[in-house]
Amino acid sequence: MKTTRALRKKLDNWKQKPIVAPGVHDPYCARIAEKLGFDTLYMGGAATSMSMLGMADFGLATATEVRANARHITSITDLPLIADSDNGYGNALNTMRTVKDYIGAGVAGIHIEDQVIPKRCGHLKGKVVISLEEMVGKVKAARKVINDEDRDFVLIARTDARGAVGGGLDDAVKRLKAYHRAGADLVFADGLLSRKELETVCKETGAPTVFHPTAISPRLGVEECHEMGVALMIYPFASIHAMSVAVWDFLAQLKKEGTPAQTKFERKIKGHPLSDLRKLFDLGGLEEMQRYEREFIPAEEVRAKYGKQSVGL
Q: Quick check: 222 and 229 in contact, CB under 8 A?
């Protein structure tokens, strides 16, 4: 089944079961999420910017870079991937190309926001939004491409009006209602500050809603959000935040102690599913690659590689 169809079926059934998508910033983290039993993935723009460029989400990652990261993720998993596509990387015409490119990259759905260019993370200060009319045009343009290319592709319209210059909750609700009418499958108000605000968005828009309990937003559970009308819960920083803290802590010990830090770490994680290098390689598809070697590479060459080798993983 195509991933777009798989995600569409989940969306059709959201009232019975909400969609939960952890943030994965690279293909390897996507493998981990899949191994743990998640059935939908999310790739955030901020995590992509930090992992690919080492830079904060200030609109510096290009459409090409973000799409390439999405393509790398979809190439190693059959799970539906929902991807951040910022503000469509331009006007309505740019948005049309963006949607087509993401469909071509194997992504199952995207969200497009109404910030001006260059944009920034929705939880940072200093956001400015375009006019409602311009964003409605982007949503309609995106819908046209979806209708032409793949009707199962999921379109999420996001507004950053809640915390934008001159914005507020009422403006956010007004915008989302218009975006839903224009063809968005789900609506997403970023940077909400309370449970009550989320309740207002869900009730007033009457549309399936996206929420993530991160940064300035409240840490609400999946079930309570679902009861309000949230169809999709995303956790944009799930992989990159956990990874960053773990790497910081280990490298700090390595700087201080040298090799003993490595030994202590290995002892600490003994028995973990990823406790040694072989397990890391196996998660990355080592056994599959070795099987393909035996199937497609001349037998003599394979024997030369492995026949007399007595060391190695």
A: no
- pLDDT attached to residue 305: 83
Asked if the structure places residue 223 within a domain, the reply is yes
User: Tokens for 170?
Assistant: 């009422």
Do the domain assignments include residue 310? no
Residue 136: per-residue pLDDT: 98
Q: Are residues 168 and 246 in the same domain?
A: no
Angle, vertex CA 187, rays to CA 134 and CA 56, nearest 5: 75
Contact 85, 102 (CB under 8 A): yes
265: its two tokens: 């770490």
Work out the end-to-end distance of the chain between its first and last CA atoms, rounded to an integer number of angstroms.
Answer: 36
pLDDT digits over 232-276, tens only?
999 999 999 999 999 999 999 999 999 999 999 999 999 999 999
What residues make up the domain containing 252? 242-305
* Mean of pLDDT values over 34-57: 96
Single pTM value for the model: 0.95
* C-alpha 61, offset from chain centre: 15
Give the dihedral of Cα atoms 217, 189, 84, 212; nearest 10 deg.
Answer: 30
Q: Is 202 exposed, middle or buried (0-12, 13-18, 19+ CB in 10 A)?
A: buried
Kind plus residue range of the DSSP H or E element containing 186: strand 186-189
| Cβ pair 154, 108 in contact under 8 A | yes
Q: Are 174 and 144 in contact (CB under 8 A)?
A: no
- Kindly state whether residues 261 and 225 are assigned to the same domain: no
3-class secondary-structure state, position 111: strand
Same domain, 266 and 215: no
Q: Are 132 and 178 in contact (CB under 8 A)?
A: yes
* The pLDDT of residue 309: 66
Residues 253, 220, single domain; the answer is no
